[in-house]
Design brief:
Layout: E1 5-9, H1 16-33, E2 42-46, H2 52-58, E3 65-68, H3 85-90, E4 95-98, H4 101-105, H5 111-123, E5 127-132, H6 136-140, H7 144-155, E6 168-171, H8 185-202, H9 205-210, E7 212-216, H10 221-228, E8 235-238, H11 245-253
Parallel strand pairs: 1-2, 1-8, 2-3, 3-4, 4-5, 5-6, 6-7, 7-8
Helix pairs in contact: 1-2, 5-7, 7-8, 10-11
This protein binds 2-phosphoglycolic acid.
Residues 9, 172, 177-178, 216-219, 237-241 line the site of 2-phosphoglycolic acid.
Length: 259
């Protein structure tokens, strides 16, 4: 019932030239395989802002959706260097990654600010991918659950969900992002099951059952199948391994054996 979603977060990688090369490779692989790249999963990529037009020009909406990696919560004003949800919608993009660990830890974004951004996305019909995740210290001191519960509660505090299609959650343990240390499938399932319970208490069990919860943190083609087998893991948010179209598609195809 929850269609697997494999999303790539390119971070500050791939200029326009590299974006066009990625798209060509993506199409070539699909052609060689003789089947559409997204037969049984949904695919999504968040390029850097300046590469979004090139990505849109090279890909079809039906095969892959396009997103942004950030937005500013206000609709306009004196915010040098920032972009509003309305500007992103004009491109157009379908979704926006919010609360990513790098925004929280490198750029100091608070839960309060993230909740404003989630609200701005929803007001503009942009699908928020709300990221939550604990640091290594928080996990080691037994605070994984309260940490991600607080991030989820705060992130959703300014919106109400009309349906399960209004939100994607990404569980991304900070210690697993870009480190090569993936969470075990048991650790991922434990966190995802917990997030779904919290979500049910925030909205309704029906909506919580339908919202997709992605795992992110050093996902590669060789560990994707293992994680994909877990009942509450509904897809991946992939950083490094999404930069290569071949490895991104291999991760997407890890789902085939788990339908
Ligand atoms: P990674 O990044 O796959 O390179 O660990 C994941 C992310 O930051 O979303």
């Amino acid at each position: 019932m929850r269609k697997p979603l494999i999303a790539g977060n390119w971070k500050m990688n791939h200029n326009q030239l590299a974006t066009r090369a990625w798209c060509r490779r993506f199409r070539d692989i699909a052609r060689e395989d003789g089947r559409p790249p997204a037969a049984d999963v949904e695919l999504a990529i968040a390029p850097p802002f300046t590469s979004i037009p090139a990505f849109l020009a090279e890909t079809g909406e039906e095969e892959i959706s396009t997103g942004a990696q950030n937005l500013h919560q206000e609709s306009s004003g004196a915010f040098t260097g920032e972009l509003s949800a309305g500007m992103l919608v004009e491109l157009p993009v379908d979704f926006v990654i919010l609360g990513h660990s790098e925004r929280r830890h490198v750029f100091g974004e608070s839960d309060e600010r993230i909740s404003l951004k989630v609200a701005a996305a929803r007001e503009n019909q942009l699908l928020p991918y709300l990221c939550v995740g604990e640091t290594e210290d928080e996990r080691d001191s037994g605070r994984m659950e309260p940490t991600i519960e607080k991030q989820l509660q705060a992130g959703l505090s300014r919106i109400s969900l009309g349906s399960a299609d209004d939100l994607v959650i990404a569980y991304e343990p900070v210690w697993a992002i870009g480190t090569g240390r993936t969470a075990t499938r048991e650790q991922a399932q434990e966190a995802h099951g917990f997030l779904r319970e919290i979500l049910a208490s925030i909205c309704s069990s029906e909506i919580a059952r339908g919202v997709r919860i992605l795992y992110g943190g050093s996902v590669k083609a060789n560990n994707a199948g293992d994680l994909a087998a877990m009942p509450d893991v509904d897809g991946f948010l992939v950083g490094g391994a999404s930069l290569d179209a071949g490895s991104f598609l291999s991760i997407a195809r890890a789902w085939s054996g788990n339908d």
